[in-house]
Design a protein that fits this description.
The structure is a homodimer.
Chain A: H1 14-32, E1 37-38, H2 40-47, H3 51-58, E2 71-72, H4 73-84, E3 90-95, H5 99-107, E4 115-122, H6 125-130, E5 137-139, H7 143-150, E6 154-157, H8 161-174, E7 178-181, E8 194-197, H9 200-211
Parallel strand pairs in A: 3-4, 3-6, 4-5, 6-7, 7-8
Antiparallel strand pairs in A: 1-2
Amino acid sequence: MDTSEKIGKIDIPKKAIYRLSIYYRCLQKLKANEVETVSSTTLAKAAGVKSAQLRKDLAYFGQFGTRGLGYPVDILLSTIRDTLGREHLQPVILVGAGNLGSALLRYHGFEKEGFEVVAAFDANPDAARSRGVLLAVYPDSDLESFIGENSVKLAILCVPVEFAQAVVNRLVAAGIQGILNFSPIVLEVTPDVTVNNVDLALELEHLSYFIR
Amino acid sequence: MDTSEKIGKIDIPKKAIYRLSIYYRCLQKLKANEVETVSSTTLAKAAGVKSAQLRKDLAYFGQFGTRGLGYPVDILLSTIRDTLGREHLQPVILVGAGNLGSALLRYHGFEKEGFEVVAAFDANPDAARSRGVLLAVYPDSDLESFIGENSVKLAILCVPVEFAQAVVNRLVAAGIQGILNFSPIVLEVTPDVTVNNVDLALELEHLSYFIR
């Protein structure tokens, strides 16, 4: 079997992509500490996965580690970086600059990972600006033209739940392909669009089940 | 087999608990619209899962739906509520009131789902207050006494990544059993503690892989 064919995006499971990002961060720390090779056991422990899982994930890239010597940190880093496409800064828009949306805009935690929030949109831009948002806030009627003119593919969605699906339909029609959704709703999109849900209340509910 | 034994927390898989929360929300909407019974197909579609998955999840509670009539909304609601323990307002503390932490405190999205953030802790409470946090912000040296005196079991962790593990060790020693972790680090905890990770940059990375 030609392993080079396995590097395509189709062949790596969706869950494995998350783990690759985590391995990448661990490897960056190892490199910063001038570590040249790492065993599967050590890397798996740092990433919080089982060794067997790690070996299976890295096997998507073909044969890698040298038995007894471990994985070469530098080569593994560049292979994962190429796969994840981390070399490009991705422009992101944020839609819905209410309490959570404007909080996320003040957070600035995305930039250091290679994402730039280039604009925010809200039905009431003046209200958003009054919440201390320093980024340009446009009326949501400008969504389609902005997405088209700036070739934006990623959007963070923080609109009230009752507007979420309608806004998503507009985003997808305008060319958005990836949505980070903070609204507690199951969004319907076409198969070529990826939605990742971040539902903070759901996470707390889940935790509270396990602490009883 | 006695199905009543299957309602215990041990027998429902961790992933299924997330889905139960989502079914619960969908059922609440149905009840608000005065719908009395719902088919597995309809409920599954609203929750964004396959019908077979829904039927499997609800089978943890024993025999439920009546063939051809669907599930009784009221009974299913109360059964899931009892299972998730949603009837109690859970006190939560937030540790690390920096950019993201103070943003979450301003968000107020947890309360409507039954969680109250009762206090925030920071190494520098004055700086946190200057970020507009209105909640009581205590120095982190007060963590142990506050957790003990108020029987807090849930914590939201937003401290800088280099302090995260040390803070978690203190939280767990003081009695915290569930942690919603926003630091991009794999935390090590004992098996009786549950950690759910919310990593916003990781979610964006994951999306950007699929939009290329």
